[in-house]
Amino acid sequence: MSERVTGPGEPEPTLESLQQRLVDFAAARRWEPFHTSKNLAAALSVEAGELLEIFQWLTPEQAAEVMSEPERAHRVRDEVADVLAYLLQFCTAVGVDPLAALAAKIERNEHRFPVPDGAADVNPDVDDQPL
């Protein structure tokens, strides 16, 4: 279950509003000189490493249970937030629309990696499987 980030009657955050909050947060602290594309890419890598560290020595079964442990789940959510924050700040710094970039990449991958003939259904839990 996700944590609530808005109060009753408040609009859900958008990607754009979160990016602006990050810009405003950094500006209020005069951090803009440090938020270069190189520094943000490095920070993103560090935070992704911290996310990986949570899972580093776990078995696949233990990793599947991480979110059922409150302390580890909290760490995962914090590291996901850090990774996303630095990715959004990086996108702002270099002028990349992250949603457009992702949509374009998915489109390219759909062409690069077509579904093979006779491939198994990717969602075996759905009941509309042919007999």
Round the mean pLDDT to the nearest integer and report it. 91
Q: Which structural class should the secondary elements be placed in?
A: mainly alpha
The helix content, as a percent range, equals: 55-70%
Uncertain residue ranges: none
- Give the overall silhouette: globular
**Count of β-strands:** 0
Could you describe the largest sheet, including whether it forms a barrel? Answer: none
Distinct helical segment count: 5
Strand content: under 5%
- String of helices and strands: HHHHH
What value does the Rg take, in angstroms?
19 Å
Distance, first to last CA: 35 Å
Report on the structure:
With 131 residues, this protein is mostly helical. 60% of the residues lie in helices and 0% in strands. It is built from five helices and no strands. The longest helix has 25 residues. The model has no long low-confidence stretch (mean pLDDT 91).
List the SSEs and their pairings:
Blueprint: H1 15-28, H2 37-55, H3 60-64, H4 70-94, H5 98-112
Helix pairs in contact: 1-4, 2-4
Short description:
With 131 residues, this protein is mainly alpha-helical. It contains 5 helices and no strands. 5% of the residues are buried.
